[in-house]
Amino acid sequence: MRTRRRALPLRSALALLLGLLLTFLTCTARANDTPPPAPGVPPSSVPAIARTWPVGSHPLVLRGWEPPATVYGRGHRGVDLATPAGAEVRAVAPGRVSFAGRVAGRGVVAVELTGTDLRTTYEPVTATVKKGDEVEPGEVVGTVEITSSHCATTCVHWGLLRGEMYLNPLELLPPWLLSRGPSRLLPVLSF
Fold first, then answer.
1. 3-state SS string over 21-58?
2. N or C: which terminal CB in the chain sees fewer CB atoms within 10 Å?
């Protein structure tokens, strides 16, 4: 009988450990959904410093980052996030506004991220900030404009640059922001 009493807590502990392992692997798999860089494009060293998404709590990514094979090659130099026109666009990390204006008829806001050599861009956006403003994560930098765009629905294009090199902005998001929902532990089953 003693052996049986010891076996139950051991089995429960093993079930709990298995549940934790599955939760970890699920979160890791979601965080690694980012496609690998294209051939000839070095992997980036982007720190996961974002504290929020630029729009919504977890917007639908309409089109992901598709790095070009060459500097001027075809690709998609950012991600398109579904959002309604007029939605607030927020800074994802602390920084300083380096540009707030119009480019080719579209509103653009660029933020140099504090302590890094990175800058994020958001378009089409009607800016509520001006060049030189310091922003905090989650601070509104503008609203999504109604414009004809390359998206089938209203979207905001979120970009990330290091110098003139485009990077995947989703890499700024830590795994807990990338997951679609809270982590859940599996119930402890008694055997």
1. HHHHHHHHHHHCCCCCCCCCCCCCCCCCCCCCCCCCCC
2. N
Query: Higher model confidence: residue 156 or residue 65?
Result: 156
Number of domains in the chain: 1
Asked if residue 80 has pLDDT above 80, the reply is yes
Cα–Cα distances in Å, from 49 out to 87, 166, 171? 23, 17, 9
**Model-level pTM?**
0.70
| Amino acid present at 82 | A
> In the structure encoding, which two tokens stand for residue 86, read together?
């007029």
Strands, E, within the chain: which ranges?
Answer: 61-63, 79-82, 88-90, 95-103, 106-113, 118-123, 125-127, 134-135, 140-144, 155-162, 165-167
Domain residues for the domain of 128 are 61-174
Residue at 23 is within a domain: no
Counting Cα atoms < 13 Å in the Cβ hemisphere of 154 gives 14
Query: How far is CA 143 from each of CA 1, 23, 125, rounded to the nearest angstrom?
Result: 68, 36, 5
pLDDT per residue over 46-72, tens digit each?
999 999 999 998 899 998 888 877 777
Average pLDDT score over residue span 29-55: 64
